[in-house]
Amino acid sequence: MPLYINEDQTMLRDTARDFIADSAPVKHMRALRDANDQTGFSRDLWKSFAEMGFTGILIGEDQGGLGLGHVEAGVVLEEIGRNLSPSPFLATAVAAVEALKGTAQATKYFSGIVAGETVAALAIDEQAKFRDSVALKAERSGNGFKLTGKKQFVSHGHVADLIIVAARTAGSADDENGVTLFAVDKGAAGLSAEAERLADSSLAARLEFDGVEVTADAVIGEVDAGRDPLNRLLRAGRTGASAELLGVGGGAMDMTVEYLKQRKQFGVLIGTFQALQHRAAHLYSEMEVARAATLRAAQMLDTGSDRADEAVSVAKAQAGLATMLAVQEGVQMFGGIGMTDEFDIGFYMKRQRVLAEMFGDANFHADKIARNAGY
Amino acid sequence: MTDLDTFRADTRTWLEANCPAEMREPVRSDKDAVWGGRDQSMLTPAQKEWMDKMGARGWTVPDWPKEYGGGGLSPAETKILREEMQRIRARNPLNSFGISMLGPALLKYGTEEQKLDHLPKIARGEIRWCQGYSEPGAGSDLAGLQTSAEDKGDHYLVNGQKVWTSYANYADWIFCLVRTDKSVKQAGISFVLFDMASEGVSTKPILLISGYSPFCETFFDNVKVPKENLVYEENKGWDVAKYLLGHEREMISGMGLGSAGGNPLLDGAKKTIGTADDGTLADPLLRAQIALFEVRAKAFNAMSEKFIDDLKAGKAHPAQPSMMKYYGTELNKSRHELMMAAGGSDALEWESERSTNGAGPRAWLRTKANSIEGGTSEVQLNIISKRILELPDK
Fold it and tell me: Residue A1: which pLDDT band, with cuts at 50, 70 and 90?
C-alpha cells in the first residue's frame, strides 16, 4: 500500500472537508462555549454525521456501516481537528467501535452508533497522566459484577449512552492480565459523573463507580482478557487522535502561513523575514513527518501488521510534538492578537494540549518504544 | 507461483551462489565501501568479484534500462532484489556518484551517444565520477560560479577552480558546471563532462576535522573539453544541475538512517552506562533523549517511504527533496551527537585499534558536513519557505 491516500480516500476527504467546514467550523465550537452548553457537543450535528455515514465508518456494511478503515477514519478526524469541531466521533465511532468489534455487544450498540443515537465515552484514565494500569475493581456479584473505583478525563462521560470501562477482575493495578472491559449503560445505579469544562472548552467527566452493578453480558470479550479489546481501543484511539492532531496542527500552520503573507511590519510583509521563513519551513517539515507517521500507523492497523503498535506510538508522539510546535509558532507569529480570545489561534493551542495528553503523551510513547526495544 | 515469486526464488539462489562471504560482513570502515574506477588496485578480490558479478547482471543499477547497463527491473522486482540482499546482509556492490547523481541526469538530459558511452561504464564500476559544482566563491550561492569555458569551435577551453570536490583525487571523470556566458547568472551555465586525466587538471586533498580528506580542491588550467561532452544545451546547465541536486539531496537525506539490524547507539550506551534493575538505561536523561530521537527517526523512516511512493506516483512537490535533505541530515547529526554522549570517553579515542582508528568520532565529525554539503540546511529552508509555503520575497 503506497503511503498516500488513494482516489476514494481523497474523495472522502473532500466530502468531509466541505461538510465539516460548513456544519461545524470553529465558530460552532465558540458558540457552544459562549452559550455555556452543558453537553459539550451538538446532538443535531452528531445526527448529521450519521446521515453522512461517518458514524459507521469502521462498522461493517453487514451491520449498517461503511466498512472502511483507519485511514478513512483519520481522513475525517483530520477535518474535525482542522475545524476544532466538538464531536464524539473519535471516542464513539473509532475507539469504542474497535473495542466492541467482534464481541457480543457489537450487535447491541452498533445500530445506535450508526444511527447517530448512541454516544460512547471511554473510562480508561485513573490518573492525571495516562498509564497502562487499571485499579478500578470489578468483583463478582450474583450473575454479574460490581464496579468500584474512579475514572477521569472521560470526554462526554456525563452524557454518554454507553461507557466503556476498563476494570480489574484479577491481580493488581500494574498487571498486564486480569483486566476486563465492561459496557456500562447510561444511568447505572451508583455511577456518578462530575463534568468539568477543560481548557479547550470541551467537557470531560470524573466518574465515580460506587458499587455499580452490571450483568455478565456487560463484559466486552472475555473476563480477565480485557487487554485485547482495550489494546484495540487504544491503538485506534491513538491513531485517530494523531490524525485529529494533524488537523489541529495543519489548521494552525495554514492560518499562520497566510498571516505571514499579509501582515506588514517595518513597511514590509513579515513573511519576507528569513528568521520567520526558516521557522515556518521547519514547522512544515515536522508536520509532514508527522503526517507520514500517522498514515503509516493507520495503514498498519488496516492491514493487521504485527508492527502496528510501534507505528502507532511513533505517530502519537510525533503528531503531538509537531502540532505543539505548530500552535506555539502560531501564537508567537500572530503576536498580540494571537493572545486574544477573539482570535481563533488560541483555541488551536488549547485543543492540541488536550489531544496530546489523550491516550498517552509523547513521553509516554517514547518510553514505551524504549521498553519494547529493551532499554 | 507468480512471476514475482519466481523472480524472488531465482534472485535468492543467485545471490546465495554469487555473493562472497566477505561481502556479507558488516561495513566497518570507509575501506569497505567500493567505488570502482580505473584503479582497481583499491579493491580487495572479494570486492571486485562482487562488483563485477552484480555489474554484469546490471544489478548495481537494477532499475536502469538494460541497454545502458542496467538490470531493466520493474519497481517491484527492484524492491525484491533489495530485500533479498538485505536478507543475506549483502553489502552494496558499488557506491558511485555516477549511479546516484550523474546517471539520473544523463538518463533525462543526455544524448543517446552519451548514454551508451557513459552509463554502462558507471553500472560496471569501470569509471569513477566526481562532481565539479562548488567554487571558493560559490557555495550556497552556487550560481555565482566563475569557472569559464571558452568556445574554441570544436572544444571548450576550461579555466578555473572547484572546491569540496569529493574524492576528486580518485575520480576518473568529472561532471562539471562551467560558465559559458558571463553576462547572466543561472542562464550562463553549462554542464560538461571530461576526463580527469586531461592535460591541465590537478587536485589537492583538503584535510578535514575528522582527520580525513575526502574532499579536494580541483584546478583547471586550459583544459580542452570536446564539444560532444556538453550535456543538454549550452547555457542550460542549470536545469541539469538542479535536477541532479534533487537526486543528491535524496541520497544525503537517506544516509545512515536505514539501520539494517542492530542499533549501535543503544549498544554503545548499554556498554558504557549499563542498565538499572528494571532493564532501563542507567542514565535516565540520556535514555529519554535516545527514545525521543528514535521517535523522530522512525517517523522520518515513514516519511522516506512516503517520499519514494509520492515520487513514483508523481505526487511529490518538486521542492520536497529539500525537506528530506534538511530533516534527514539534521537527524543524522543528532544521532551522532547521541552516539558520542553514549560512548563517553571510549568514543573519544582517535587512533586506537580498539576504536577502529577512531571510526566513531571521525564519523561524528563527518556528519557535521551533512547540513552544509549539497546545499546547507539554511538553503533548504529557504527553498521550502519560498517554493512550498510560497512565502513572499518582498
Answer: confident
